[in-house]
Amino acid sequence: MTATRVCALSELEQDAAIRVEIEGVPMAVVLDSNGVVHAIGDTCTHGDISLAEGFVDGETLECWAHGSAFSLRTGRPLNLPAYEPVPVYAVTIDGDDVLIDPTPQKEA
Does this model's pTM top 0.70? Predict the structure, then answer.
């Protein structure tokens, strides 16, 4: 599938997440403290909660409701109560444009 522009890089705040949708698929887009942009599924697998409303800490995004933290690189939960991963999406930066391929990445 083709990558879709979701926002401008300049719209992202460091260590914060925003919620975007591509073709009805919700995603959390994060600019981490190292300046890397990540995109993961926006719905916590423990509860139907938007992860974009959570807390960014390094390379993790923590659900505000129950505290499950997800790896921004792999989508895997790092603690309970969540035990299922969220999808991870490929991000491309083109100038000031943030592009996301809505096809979930396969783990290496």
Answer: yes
- The Cβ of residue 49 has, within 10 Å, a number of other Cβ atoms equal to 18
Cis peptide before 81 (omega within 30 of 0): yes
Domains of the chain listed by start with CATH number: 4-101 (2.102.10.10)
Nearest to 59 by CA among 36, 86, 87, 28: 36
Report the distance separating Cα 104 and Cα 66, nearest Å. Answer: 25
DSSP code at position 18: E
Task: Of 101, 107, 106, give the one whose Cα is nearest residue 23.
Answer: 101
Helices (H) and strands (E) in the chain, counts: 0, 9
Residue owning tokens 């960014």: 56
Q: pLDDT tens across 73-89, in order?
A: 999 999 999 999 999 99
State how far the Cα of 86 lies from the Cα of 98, in Å rounded to an integer: 20
Q: Could you tell me which of 22, 70, 74 has the C-alpha nearest to residue 46?
A: 70
